[in-house]
Amino acid sequence: MTQQTAANDTILIFDTTLRDGEQSPGATLNVEEKLEIARQLSRLGVDICEAGFPIASPGDFEAVRRIAEEVGPLTEGRKDGRPMVIAGLARANEEDIRRAYDAVKVAPRHRIHTFLATSDIHLKHKLRMDREECVEQVIRSISFARTLCDDIEFSTEDAGRSDPDFLVQVLGEAIKAGATTLNIPDTVGYTTPDEYGRLIAYLIANTPGAEKAIWSVHCHNDLGLATANTLAGIQAGARQAEVTLNGIGERAGNTALEEVVMALTTRPQNFNLQTNIDTTQIARTSHMVSTYTGMVIQPNKAIVGANAFAHEAGIHQDGMLKNHQTYEIMRPEAVGLNTSKLVLGKHSGRHAFRVHLREMGYDNLDDTEVVAAFKRFKKIADKKKVVTDADIEAIIADEIYQPPETWRLDHIQVSCGDHSIPTASVVMTGPDGAQYQDAALGSGPVDAVYQAINRIIGVANRLTEFSINAVTEGLDAVAEATIRIQPIEEGDFTVNPQTSKAIYRTFSGHGASTDIVVASARAYLSALNKMLAERDKRPHQLQRITNEPTV
Ligand code: KIV
Ligand code: ZN
User: Do 448 and 414 meet the contact criterion of CB atoms below 8 Å apart?
Assistant: First the structure.
């Protein structure tokens, strides 16, 4: 296996959406979703995919192993024709490192990413070790990791608050022990761009053997400076940037992939650097990550927010019509928006639909999945004149990338209005193939549907987030509902690699329909099905409350 190297004018993109991103509260993904995101990251052109923290739980190990096995070899659509490097995170000890290696080793290109904190605050209060012990542990762990694999990344956790001269010492030893990439995390998002840039320049200039390693930047966004700090680090000589889609991650998140890549692309005069990213895949990847994690993107988010390319003010619209450069620094097409070439409508056949799906990058769907998506497309086309790519993406996320259904929604009927109590009746097919029906009252139509579903399935949960968005403009738009629920009874958990605390699971669900109540019901059921699928892995008896309507 050859390790990752960087041409001096190329920034390697290390995506940690599936590790640091998944650590953000409520972003839990199941294995199928992780695989689908990893496939899309490969199409996007990510150089290194940090697939998870294998020792955290058997589920995390299995997800990383399957990504290594199934996505690790893929090269389709990739600029450099080489597959992604699949990385697994490990604390600096033998057990973690071996577990990470066992998870990633099947990938043709794999990496162990190990880390140890270097700031006095972390050494004293978290690790309870002195600087000398820290250096010894770094040497021991990296030397051990090198006996397994020749692509080793080492991170000095909380480097942003560490003594630069101690960092020089630790990193020099890390290079001697065999680390090939050195990552300098601003773990708590504390630094400012000039400070962080100076730190990177200082470390590269003073660490013995610095030229043998790739220097990497990893910034958190607590002060809203993650992208600025990352770019400052790049200008100071770093050649790998650690990022997540939509900037998701612990607390205020990580550096957003789309912001760094588009800054480098849009301002070549400032950077004169390139990436291997196919920027036209950015919008789709961002949408997929938002859908699966249930983390809605703020409308004014740079590059991928709904308003990022909207021009509301009359004066702006006038300028745009005369010349788009008046108010636009990059074209929406550059990030994969407004690229639909073929307009699909209710007369489009299955063949045209399949061809269009392939053009959109959905080339791994089997016949049954295409038929299912086509049926949904036809239903939407009956209600809407033109079906756009955004509608199709919503259908695919809703219809295909869902867990195997335990419960299926057959019919919903709702009655509501300002003089009546919202009432819903629901018919569903259960895991045993039998049909169940029930009805309930609610504070609104969506609540009434949820109450009716609860009466049938009877699984206690807490709703932590609910949102509904129109995919396209107009009254006939497809609506996408996103929901997050938490089991009331404690579910299984994974471990936060930095704090070693348990992260309890949140399940997100997604539903799309031209009817907002139906979209909401589908979203709720998809979250419930995910929760049930996890429970089924443990001994559990489904409790049905009753099948008698309360109204
Ligand atoms: O922020 C951080 O320090 C990390 C390391 C584990 C790389 O995520
Ligand atoms: Zn981090």
Answer: yes
